[in-house]
């Protein structure tokens, strides 16, 4: 397969934006408008637009998306023999989980486009459908962190990094995935920068007020300890920790309350939850600190003490190591602004 070329002249790249009933309209429409931005907003003087984007689906005509709103499929996959970029937008995954095998014709078409040299891209949960093609087996990818556990269960051959905003993989950098919902911004800007140039990407980012998520997605992830491991003794310890993680020496207290020897408890806790007891406590404390930073004006030193750390300097280091951001920067990013408060 040929390596995708950058847009260096009048050639317009053909982009197929896939619409299926599971698709989320905000992501689909956002990608459509941003990648058409040069033409729509006349932001740059080019003899040809860098992209010609069509909404494609199994059949042309109206399709009702996950929210119930309709959108018009401009071209059926039977009409598209070749394209340069295929994008599957965010999909709404039902509480019962993703049901495989519903779109065999569409999957065959994606494989055919890839064999012809197209870059295959997914936004957020779009990777659930694309992973069925087998193209991502053995490759790195990202997915919305809320779907990470389910995705890994369905597609163990795909290595996922839910903390990453954008993953570009494949032999010729032809497999592109973005993480949590709004990171479609990063994917669209990446494709624009790669194929049309950094200047155009920056112009569009300013025009649409889009941001690159430079800090990654770790600050957005809410820690939820694994509970479905079936070890009743450890589940009891977790339930106690939920309400008592701020006490002094919580690991020692858990061990005392259990019926296990210290080494046995620590081994079983790590096997069940994937974290050592002290690491688990630290994650609970940092998660509580995040909520306090978001919702209160209490000082970082005070928050450190309230979540169980007398040494505020240690707390600051732990917080940054865990979230990728210093407590003050986290508060600035995530606190509800004053004008939006009741």
Short note summarizing the structure:
With 342 residues, the protein is an alpha/beta fold. It is built from 14 helices and eleven strands.
Summarize the structure in words.
The chain is of the alpha/beta class. It folds into two domains: 13-220, Rossmann fold (3-Layer(aba) Sandwich), CATH 3.40.50; 232-340, Orthogonal Bundle (Arc Repressor Mutant, subunit A). The chain is built from 14 helices and eleven strands. The protein has helices spanning 25-35, 37-41, 104-115, 127-130, 148-154, 184-196, 198-208, 232-244, 250-257, 262-273, 277-295, 300-306, 312-323, 327-334, and strands at residues 13-18, 51-57, 61-64, 70-73, 75-76, 85-88, 119-123, 140-141, 159-160, 166-169, 175-178. The protein has a seven-stranded mixed sheet with strand order 5-2-1-6-7-11-10, sandwiched between helices. Strands 3-4 form a two-stranded antiparallel sheet. The protein has a two-stranded parallel ribbon with strand order 8-9. It is globular. The N and C termini lie far apart (56 Å).
Based on CA atoms alone, the radius of gyration comes out at: 23 Å
List unreliable stretches of 5+ residues.
1-9
Mean pLDDT: 92
The string of secondary-structure elements, in order, is EHHEEEEEHEHEHEEEHHHHHHHHH
The neighbouring-strand order within the major sheet is 5-2-1-6-7-11-10
* Second-tier CATH architecture of the largest domain: 3-Layer(aba) Sandwich
Percent of residues in helices: 40-55%
Main sheet overview: 7 strands, mixed
- The CATH topology of the largest domain is Rossmann fold
Q: Span between N and C termini?
A: 56 Å
What oligomeric assembly is this protein in?
single chain
What is the number of domains? 2
The CATH superfamily of the largest domain appears as Class I glutamine amidotransferase (GATase) domain
């Amino acid at each position: 397969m040929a390596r995708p070329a950058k847009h260096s002249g009048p050639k317009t790249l053909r982009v197929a934006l896939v619409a299926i009933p599971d698709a989320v309209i905000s992501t689909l429409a956002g990608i459509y408008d941003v990648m058409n931005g040069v033409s729509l907003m006349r932001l740059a003087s080019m003899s040809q637009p860098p992209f010609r984007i069509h909404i494609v689906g199994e059949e042309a005509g109206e399709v009702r998306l996950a929210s119930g709103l309709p959108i018009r499929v401009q071209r059926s996959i039977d009409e598209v023999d070749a394209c340069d970029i295929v994008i599957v937008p965010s999909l709404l995954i039902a509480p019962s989980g993703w049901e495989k095998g519903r779109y065999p014709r569409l999957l065959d078409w994606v494989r055919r486009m890839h064999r012809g040299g197209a870059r295959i891209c997914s936004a957020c949960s779009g990777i659930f459908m694309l992973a069925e093609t087998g193209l991502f087996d053995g490759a790195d990818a990202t997915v919305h962190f809320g779907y990470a556990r389910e995705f890994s269960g369905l597609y163990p051959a795909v290595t996922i990094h839910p903390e990453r905003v954008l993953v570009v993989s494949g032999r010729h950098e032809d497999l592109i995935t973005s993480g949590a919902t709004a990171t479609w911004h990063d994917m669209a800007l990446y494709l624009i920068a790669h194929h049309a140039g950094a200047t155009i990407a920056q112009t569009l980012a300013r025009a649409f007020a889009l941001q690159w998520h430079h800090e990654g997605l770790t600050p957005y992830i809410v820690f939820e300890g694994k509970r479905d491991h079936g070890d009743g003794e450890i589940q009891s310890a977790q339930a106690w920790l939920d309400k008592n993680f701020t006490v002094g020496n919580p690991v020692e207290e858990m061990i005392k309350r259990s019926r296990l020897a210290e080494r046995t408890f620590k081994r079983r806790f790590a096997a069940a939850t994937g974290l050592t007891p002290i690491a688990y406590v630290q994650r609970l404390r940092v998660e509580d600190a995040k909520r306090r930073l978001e919702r209160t004006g209490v000082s970082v030193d005070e928050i450190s003490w309230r979540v169980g750390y007398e040494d505020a300097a240690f707390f600051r280091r732990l917080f940054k190591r865990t979230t990728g951001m210093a407590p003050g920067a986290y508060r600035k990013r995530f606190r509800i602004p004053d004008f939006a408060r009741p």
